[in-house]
């Protein structure tokens, strides 16, 4: 599987060809391109907590969801806190208004209900979308370094199993996020990875000067998905680095937190 750029009605987003070919689902990873926001939020800001004009954000959602083919009025979100919690989503979780507050914290969402758009946010952390075309189950996960260390993608696969999904049937797409080239860290990040994964983490960690390291979060999450039982050919990884491409993506590191947000969406048909 590959993740490729798509342009629809002026909106640039990314999609995994394997999920598109499987049918029964729509999905997409947003970029900064194709929205109506201005200033530091220009232009496709999908963050509801970043301080952008709410009417601009509403129009951005309308445009992005229309571009990927998702219904605009059946959205489910969560308060993301860098955990490994994956929440099952029911119709009661559908937001009545885009700006309604969610009463729960989770970094993953899973459902087997058609028409519910699962939404997660990112701006360096990895957005991960999962789809089982056999049992018709979808999940979305937000994998920062803490979530990566605690195994958020494996928790998502486990939650999908509650709906009858088998790992070998699941397709996964790891969207654009900070890549190893730009994810320079102190020892706390590699220590968290090795504490969780032991020597399996070492191929994804490169020591550099002054006690710092480069860490490959995309590679670790792909490895974790394989450990959870997914076939390697069922895992697509975006090569786009949010920190390398500031004209296309928001990067929390590059902007020092003054930014909008990307969103990743998956919706069963």
Automatic annotation (TrEMBL):
<keyword id="KW-0808">Transferase</keyword>
<dbReference type="InterPro" id="IPR011324">
    <property type="entry name" value="Cytotoxic_necrot_fac-like_cat"/>
</dbReference>
<protein>
    <recommendedName>
        <fullName>Purine nucleoside phosphorylase</fullName>
    </recommendedName>
</protein>
<keyword id="KW-0862">Zinc</keyword>
<dbReference type="GO" id="GO:0005507">
    <property type="term" value="F:copper ion binding"/>
</dbReference>
<dbReference type="GO" id="GO:0016787">
    <property type="term" value="F:hydrolase activity"/>
</dbReference>
<dbReference type="InterPro" id="IPR038371">
    <property type="entry name" value="Cu_polyphenol_OxRdtase_sf"/>
</dbReference>
<comment type="function">
    <text>Purine nucleoside enzyme that catalyzes the phosphorolysis of adenosine and inosine nucleosides, yielding D-ribose 1-phosphate and the respective free bases, adenine and hypoxanthine. Also catalyzes the phosphorolysis of S-methyl-5'-thioadenosine into adenine and S-methyl-5-thio-alpha-D-ribose 1-phosphate. Also has adenosine deaminase activity.</text>
</comment>
<keyword id="KW-0479">Metal-binding</keyword>
<keyword id="KW-0378">Hydrolase</keyword>
<dbReference type="InterPro" id="IPR003730">
    <property type="entry name" value="Cu_polyphenol_OxRdtase"/>
</dbReference>
<dbReference type="Pfam" id="PF02578">
    <property type="entry name" value="Cu-oxidase_4"/>
</dbReference>
<comment type="similarity">
    <text>Belongs to the purine nucleoside phosphorylase YfiH/LACC1 family.</text>
</comment>
<dbReference type="GO" id="GO:0017061">
    <property type="term" value="F:S-methyl-5-thioadenosine phosphorylase activity"/>
</dbReference>
